[in-house]
Write a structure and sequence with these properties.
The protein is α/β, with parallel strands linked by helices. The protein is built from 25 helices and 16 strands. Helix content is about 45%, strand content about 10%. Helix 5 crosses helix 12.
């Protein structure tokens, strides 16, 4: 399936960006991007506050691109949906505190906005939002996916394992000495290996393969004196690797009867309890707290435990298959499960029987509500990404304009098995959904209105971008863990057609599993065929590649990039920021320079930081069109700082881990949601106040004589705050070109609203 020709309609990243610039009328103008990071519901709450701050400063209209990841995509999609579908592109869709409102709006519109905010705030526990759609509904959906998946996978796995239990002449007792050395009680009529022909053959074949491999290694030493061609050497190295993998797999499956007999005898002699006691003691020792190396030992213990669990599953399958063979009952029971498995694999949709569908429905209900809040009717379920673009009335395949800010939703294309070393090492590549194009650098890009039979909705893209729980990504790339997660259908990822492999006929089937269910599940369980060359590709949470959402903005060489980061970072490692710095340097030749010291707490007891934002520079790689281009990066983060209201400080005193609570917590009550939203609002307002101070320094005081007048540099002017105090030194990075971008961003509107912002912030 990976040898199909590429789709002629797929284009490169440069073509995509050029089309965006044309429709956004960006030629010669400054490009400003806003990135909303991952972090689940906490990111949605915090970045809602950031959006409100930018709207209060009347600068949201200056944003060119909106790039979102995971939880940032929740609130970003809510903004895009409400602005386009509910407000017809007019105004800011959420309410502002009354003190920040300069231009009055009709009471009806204010009430509508307040209802929207109440709705989202009330869905902080969006996975179980109401009495009916409660935690039991969530558990039932999880169990449903498990049952359907197991009904497809288990019968086939059981059938294959049962082949090892086919009857064999009982005189073969090849492994009797081995068992006697284990002091096991042997049954005189069966021998150590149960009566299974393929079990003996498989294990014997595996031992033979291992012996052959040793011989090959020795022979390789004899012929190493010859200088073989590079192609021959590479072929030999790859062949040795595959042969070793096949040998180990054969030995493992061939050992199932031996393991079954060992475990059965241990149960009979009560040795199993002693063995389990040893295992528990070993795991306890490995996971003990150590100042150095404790994390490695704990990871090793978990890895061993998961590996043993997978092996025991196969041993149990063999045990029951062997028991049924002895009673001649397996033929009576295997046919119906196999028929059900085949039927489900042909009929069921792999994307809809996993937790993806349940997750999508809950996210859509929470963040893409109908115009009449609470109404059961809502077309957000079918609202396509391509509806954010305006087409020519006569030529529907020609774009006229696109909604601004241009929304990019980031996901991760799984490239675990890619032949490209960089993509294979990373395990993923950034894959975008946007109004004009969908795709990645690895798969090329396809027009959104022609991609996957035009079925991709904003809700689906938002859900894929937040599909954090999924096999073969990040920490779940460990084989046994990925196997168990896929087996139990604990997965939020999405299978879709490859943009560079798509054809119009195949696209009609891309939303359905037919006929590749078992292929999909096999790839996820066995970590095989997960790359950019397959007809169908696997997508998951964009944060598994880059969690800030700024990657695509830097690809587009934005003059100003604003990042709202709400990922959990209790140890102040700034790992997501470091990941962005590394990836854009490698991929785009862009160097980010930023100092994180101001965000370290001044007092560990109070956790108060000097500022909630950082200012850095982005030195872009030179091109023919642009030389020595330097952009600005404004990085807003969840941290405590002076000027926070009592409601936030009270919540922090009651919950000491705030604002670094785990992103695993996806059940926010109203106080928790409001604490993060207000934190984001205050952080954004603080940034705007300092920006205004940078652009509008106080007039120099009059002095009796020039001798008394101190020398003032451009840097010191930038540091002078509007309240007479020193503004933050980060703004000294602003050069002449950057200052012009910031002036365009702030415009005259920010100055007219500054007094209201200061009153609210200091009130």
């Amino acid at each position: 399936m990976n040898h199909r020709s590429e789709d002629a309609g797929a284009v490169e990243a440069g073509d995509v960006i050029n089309k965006e610039r044309t429709l956004l009328n960006l030629d010669g103008g400054s490009v400003i991007g806003l990135a909303l990071s991952g972090g689940g519901i906490r990111s949605a709450a915090f970045n809602l506050g950031v959006l409100q701050a930018l709207a209060a400063g009347k600068v949201m209209d200056k944003i060119t691109y909106l790039s979102t990841v995971s939880g940032g995509g929740y609130i970003g999609s809510a903004y895009t949906w409400m602005k386009k579908a509910l407000d017809k592109g007019e105004g800011f869709p959420f309410p502002l505190p009354s003190q920040l409102i300069v231009e009055k709006e009709p009471d009806a519109r204010i009430k509508t906005k307040e209802k929207r905010l109440d709705w989202i705030r009330g869905h902080g526990h969006f996975l179980a939002p109401t009495a009916g759609m409660n935690i039991w509904a969530f558990i039932a959906a999880l169990m449903r996916g498990m049952v359907v998946n197991l009904a497809v996978v288990l019968p086939i796995m059981f059938f294959l394992v049962s082949l090892l239990a086919l009857p064999l002449d009982p005189t073969l007792d090849l492994f009797k000495p081995l068992v006697q050395s284990l002091n096991l009680q042997l049954e005189s009529d069966a021998g150590i290996i149960p009566k299974a022909v393929y079990a003996h053959l498989t294990l014997g074949f595996g031992i033979g393969m291992l012996g052959m491999l040793m011989i090959f290694f020795i022979l390789y030493g004899f012929v190493s004196q010859y200088n073989w061609p590079e192609g021959t050497r590479r072929f030999a190295q790859v062949a040795f690797g595959w042969f070793l993998w096949l040998t180990l797999a054969t030995l493992i499956f061939g050992s199932l009867p031996l393991a079954d007999q060992v475990m059965s005898n241990w149960v009979k002699t009560s040795s199993l309890s002693a063995f389990m006691g040893m295992v528990v003691s070993a795991v306890g020792w490995l996971t003990r707290e150590e100042k150095q190396g404790g994390q490695t030992l704990q990871s090793a213990a978990i890895a061993i435990g998961l590996t043993v669990t997978c092996y025991i599953i196969f041993v149990c399958m063999y045990h029951y298959a062997h028991a049924w063979h002895n009673k001649n009952e397996i033929q009576n029971y295997i046919h119906l499960p196999l028929a059900v498995a085949v039927g489900l694999s042909l009929m069921a949709n792999i994307n809809r029987v996993s937790m993806h569908r349940f997750y999508r429905d809950r996210l859509r209900e929470a963040f893409m509500p109908p115009e009449e809040i609470g109404s059961a009717s809502c077309h957000s379920d079918i609202f396509s990404l391509s509806q954010l673009a305006v087409f020519d009335k006569e030529k529907q395949d020609k774009w006229v304009s696109v909604q601004k800010p241009y929304h990019i939703l980031n996901t991760t294309l799984n490239t675990t098995n890619s032949t490209n070393p960089k993509w294979a090492g990373r395990g993923g590549e950034n894959f975008i959904f946007s109004p004009l194009y969908c795709g990645s650098g690895a798969t090329k890009y396809k027009e959104t209105n022609k991609f996957a039979d035009c079925k991709f909705s904003l809700a689906t893209a938002m859900t894929i971008s937040g599909a954090a729980v999924d096999p073969n990504n990040g920490v779940t790339r460990f084989g046994p863990l990925a196997f168990l997660m896929a087996l139990l259908n604990v997965r939020l990822g999405y299978w879709c057609v490859n943009p560079k492999k798509e054809s119009q006929i195949l696209a009609r089937f891309s939303g359905h599993s037919w006929p590749w269910w078992l292929v999909y599940m096999g790839r996820e369980m066995l970590q095989a065929g997960l790359n950019e060359e397959q007809l169908h590709i696997h997508l998951s949470d964009g944060g598994q590649f880059e969690n800030l959402g700024a990657y695509e903005l830097i690809r587009r060489r934005c003059d100003l990039v604003i990042v709202g980061d709400s990922g959990a970072d209790p140890d102040n490692t700034f790992d997501t920021l470091g990941n962005l710095v590394q990836k854009v340097r490698v991929d785009f030749g862009a160097e980010i320079s930023i100092d994180t010291k101001p965000m370290f707490p001044k007092d560990e007891k109070t956790k108060i930081c000097a500022q909630p934002y950082l200012v850095g520079t982005i030195h872009y790689e030179e091109t023919k069109e642009s030389k020595n281009k330097v952009g600005l990066l404004i990085y807003i983060n969840t941290c405590l700082f002076d000027g926070l209201p009592e409601c936030v400080l009270t919540y922090q005193r009651m919950h000491k881990e705030f604002p670094e609570q785990s992103t695993m917590d996806q059940f926010f009550d109203e106080p928790q949601f409001e604490a993060y939203r207000e934190l984001g609002l205050r952080a954004g307002l603080r940034m705007l106040m300092d920006l205004h101070a940078c652009l509008n320094p106080l007039p120099a005081p009059e002095f009796p004589s020039d001798a008394d007048k101190p020398t003032q540099t451009a840097s010191s002017m930038a540091e002078t705050g509007s309240n007479g105090s020193k503004a933050l030194p980060d703004w000294s990075k602003v050069n002449k070109n950057n200052a012009e971008v910031l002036k365009m961003f702030a415009g005259t509107e920010l100055a007219t609203r500054m007094q209201a912002i200061k009153n609210y912030f200091n009130g």
